[in-house]
Amino acid sequence: MIRLLKKIYSRWINLLFNFFDFIKVVIARIYKKKIIYSHYARVNNFGDRFNNDLLNYFKTQLIYTSSYKKSQVALIGSILGSYGRDFKGYVLGSGFINNRYDRKENQWNIKIIRGPLSAEQAGLDNSSVLFADPGILSSKIHSITQKKKYTLGILPHSKDVELVKKLDFTKDVLFIHPRRKPIEVIKDINKCHYIASSSLHGLIFADSYRIPNVHLKFSEKLKGGFHKFNDYYLGMDSKPEYIEYASSLTLSKIISNCKLRYTDNYLEKKQKQVMEIFKKCINEIT
Question: Identical fold at 32-137+270-284 and 143-263?
């Protein structure tokens, strides 16, 4: 009975999303706004929802498609495993969730891929593409001037939320819920002097806003383990690092592991390259 109710609920949610997408298409056409279709993870998570903010920044309306074959571009997220080799659109910053996927000898038009691990899985053996996650543009897309109120912000992956919600935090620590709009999460991130996160995009957003951070592992629930984290850090010429949560872990210990793993100049150069590629590719998509 519960399984049936979940299935009915899921169908209604999809119908609702499809209705909203239809309205978006109508409005975009009225205002002659470019429309781009993409197959991505349509879930209530700030990192995946940032795809909408990203394309809106480039004056483009993003519309979800359930089929990779109808997708024109693969954007933010560990979604390349859901794309077949016959996909002929652009790859602009996506990656693989784990190392079991092999998409060599594909027809993809790869311009940006998250990192070298995903690049190898996609059959790339040269440096003709840029390594980056477009989440590094978050500080360009949402310029935030926020007074710091907390010493540490803890931003768990969606699968770690229930575990983290049960922990006792001092008034210096802010629990940042990931199942919200990107701008709401971004505002909370910017209230903190340091960020500890088991969400990859929690770390990427903190990097973008130049807030020292650390990958804080809470559980074994994340699909793919460290793969996407390692992929991102290696793609940014950084050493993958993490600390593991334990009841004995102190605030000072977490903070002592928080850092910025690349320079401002390095980030600015990557941001500029990502923006240039996005502008060019969006202009070419018809």
Answer: yes
Q: How far is CA 207 from CA 91, 203, 214, in A?
A: 22, 6, 10
Within 8 A by CB and 6+ apart from 257, the residues are: 214, 241, 243
The pLDDT tens digits of the residues spanning 239-280 come to 999 999 999 999 999 999 999 999 999 999 999 999 999 999
- Domain boundaries defined on the chain: 32-137+270-284, 143-263
3-state secondary structure of 59: coil
Residue 258: CB atoms within 10 A of its CB come to 18
Q: Which of 152, 147, 148, 150 is nearest to 257 (CA)?
A: 152
Q: Please choose, from the candidates 71, 218, 58, the residue with its C-alpha nearest in 3D space to the C-alpha of residue 141.
A: 58
- Are 12 and 38 in contact by the 8 Å Cβ rule? The answer is no
H or E, element range at 206: helix 200-208
**SS3 assignment, position 284:** helix
Query: What pTM, to 2 d.p., does this model score?
Result: 0.94
In this predicted structure, what is the pLDDT of residue 14? 77
HSE-up of 286 (CA within 13 Å, CB side)? Answer: 0
pLDDT level of residue 11 (50, 70, 90 thresholds): confident
Cβ neighbors of 216 (< 8 A, separation 6 or more) are 154, 196, 197, 198, 242, 243, 244, 245, 254
Task: Write down the architecture of domain 143-263 according to CATH.
Answer: 3-Layer(aba) Sandwich (3.40)
CATH topology of domain 32-137+270-284: Rossmann fold (3.40.50)
Query: How far apart, in Å, are the Cα atoms of 201 and each of 185, 215, 241, 279?
Result: 10, 10, 15, 22
Report yes or no: 191 and 148 within 8 Å, Cβ to Cβ. yes
160 exposure class (CB count in 10 Å sphere: 0-12, 13-18, 19+): buried
